[in-house]
Amino acid sequence: MTPPTAAHLVGRVGAVLRSLSMVNEAGAGTAELARAAGLPRPTVHRLLVSLADEGFVDRDQRSGRWFLGPELYLLGEAAGLRYDVTHHARESVHRLAVATGESAFFSARRGDETVCLLREDGDFPIRSFVLYEGARFPLGVVSAGLAVLSFLDDAEIDGYLERRDLVGQWGQAHAPDVVRERIAQTRTDGYAVNPGLVVEGSWGMAATVFDRAGQPAWALTLTGVETRFRPERRTELGALLLREAHALSRTLTSGMSVRR
Predict the structure, then answer these.
(1) Domain spans of the chain?
(2) Which residues contact 124 (CB under 8 A, 6 or more apart)?
(3) What value does the mean pLDDT of the chain take?
(4) Which residues touch 94 (CB under 8 Å, ≥6 apart)?
(5) Which fold is adopted by the domain 84-255?
(6) Which CATH class is domain 6-75?
């Protein structure tokens, strides 16, 4: 068997760490991570042991479950000096949660995914828990990912939908032609709507936040139960999202030196 190249090995490590980041605070077993990363279990076990030696992952000796390690926290603190934008977004998320009573979020694009960075719950007692801090979804799935995908150029959208199989995990509602219909609607409205496609009855709406180059880099989201997202209220929520997204885009493009 041909040994993996350095680039291949780094890709495997990245897949394992990303899979581990998606389980939030619950941790994961080796077999679970292997399935999520699409790698053989022995390979994942060897990678995890090596990562643990460097402090990038940690293992609970009682349960055997793996967690992200302290070294990643330290690296994240250092990287945050350059890339962290959440302190700019926190006020927008707070205003949306207070004004609507729903759960409000801020997500960032990371390659072909969006990653949830902030969450604040409003005062309405029934909430959706599809999104949480650290949750990752492919572009075009949750409303944040649809909002980002919709404002990429057409060639990039075409390339993404050709290489990414959303149907296998997310169902026929995420077939390319159906996603394109939602993209067209998002471009018309200015904001994205997810009508309970991930979890039935759990709706989401999102507006795109643009970087200095005019590229869709982040999104603000509101989620809640279906009864809170009737057509007449969606218009109101969409206007609030667009107002905050436009203001945040101006803040991020005028006051930051972040390079993507």
Answers:
(1) 6-75, 84-255
(2) 101, 102, 224, 228
(3) 89
(4) 104, 120
(5) Beta-Lactamase (3.30.450)
(6) mainly alpha
Percent of the chain with pLDDT over 90: 67
pLDDT tens for residues 176-207? Answer: 999 999 999 999 999 999 999 999 999 999 99
The pair of structure tokens assigned to 109 is 């694009």
CA dist., res. 29 & res. 137, Å (int): 21
Q: What pTM was computed for the model?
A: 0.73
Among 15-29, 83-97, 104-118, name the one with the lowest average pLDDT.
15-29
Max distance between CA atoms of the chain, in angstroms, equals 61
